[in-house]
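Hi C.,

You asked whether I'd gotten around to modeling the 175-residue construct. I have! Everything is below, sequence then structure, no commentary in between.
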Amino acid sequence: MNKQILMFCALLCGFTVISRAQSVPTFQGTTADNKKVSIPSEVNGKYTLLCFAASNKSQADLETWLEPVYNHYIAKTGIMDAAYDVNVFFVPVFKGANAAMKSTLKQKFRENAQQDLWPHILFCENDLSAVQSALNMTKDNVPYFSLLDKSGQIVYRTSGAYTEEKFDAMDEKVE
């Protein structure tokens, strides 16, 4: 598991991951398992955690979130975790030279990552600068996290490295 998490983080080099209610701007993408997803319309009715990463400088902070998010919301390894029904999408933000390499990086991810992560990696088809601007994601060197409620409204936002306090504050918003 740790090897695959590190591989995922290595592939994110060169891109970025994201308390009042706010709408998330609409954007579309394709998961690593080739499922088309439109945010927020296709996630309404379910809590959704969006994790945006835009550079290799954000990698260290992103890595601190991967295992807790994976264990709690994806693998559901804890006793009470099975009760959580949360969409999780890690959204790499491609900029500059990395935008031209998007398809290569996506293929490399598919070849090296465990398949249970594929539905949670959302490669966007459109430029995310409007989304970044609307969500005030001004720094490329930190990951950004936004939790959407069942109606698609942002109910919790944070950035930077994982802390139990941040995770607990976010988790309290999930009913």
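If it helps when you're writing up: The longest helix spans residues 59-74.

Thanks,
B.
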